[in-house]
Description:
With 246 residues, the chain is α/β, with parallel strands linked by helices. It has one domain: 3-Layer(aba) Sandwich (Rossmann fold), CATH 3.40.50. Helix content is 33%, strand content 25%. It has nine helices and ten strands. A six-stranded mixed beta sheet has the order 6-7-8-3-9-10, sandwiched between helices. Strands 2-1-4-5 form a four-stranded antiparallel beta sheet, with helices on one face. A hairpin with a 2-residue loop joins strand 1 and strand 2. Helix 4 (123-135) packs across helix 5. The model is unreliable at 1-11 (pLDDT under 50).
Amino acid sequence: MLLNDAALNSPSGPVLSVARLSVSYGSIRALDDINFDIGVGEVVALIGANGAGKSSLLKALAGQIRHTGDVVIGGRNCHHLDRHVVGYIPQVSSADHSFPIRVRDVVLSGRRRFGRLGFRPGHTDIAAVESCLEQVGLADLADRPLSNLSGGQQQRVMLARALAQETDILLLDEAASGVDERRADALIDTFDMLADRGKSVLISSHNVAFVKRRFKRCIGINTSLLTDGNPSEVLDADTLTSLLSK
């Protein structure tokens, strides 16, 4: 599913708009009045300490948890939009990757939204899987069991699955966590390549040095939104203290 033409054809306009978004778990306020926009083809870091609300924000944007406020994609409010246009990729550590399933089949599961009950993949689905694996550099591992892959490779399989959904917005929770610098850089290179093709990426991280080195924009939260801009300009000592304290 593509977003509306106006959003896709206007590089300067937001593809994702978040207004007054709040999330509560009982009496605990996890997010409070979050507001920001992301444009077509942007790769943005979401930075904050563990427990600052990064995962809650990504899940809210993906429609996985209840929230107040508005999430607008391509000019349409998400309350009236199929959120399959958003690809959400959780932390590798939060998913069970020991289940005996091939890499190819994991990615193919992202195509289910294009079929009805009793989904049977066709030539288009199979070609899409091959293309997505090629994009993330895993074409040669298509028939490998997922459990045999490294954490970084598993993360790229989940990315290929999201791409197979033909999503325009990718939300990644700590995608570069637990992998070495070279593999983290390779992931960001992949995101930059996807951004050149019109995808928008929001990736959470608590690694300040990594964000400063590889991102042109970061959004910093600690329950509320504290900063938004170029990491080298907005992540000063005082801001970092507020962002990383819990």
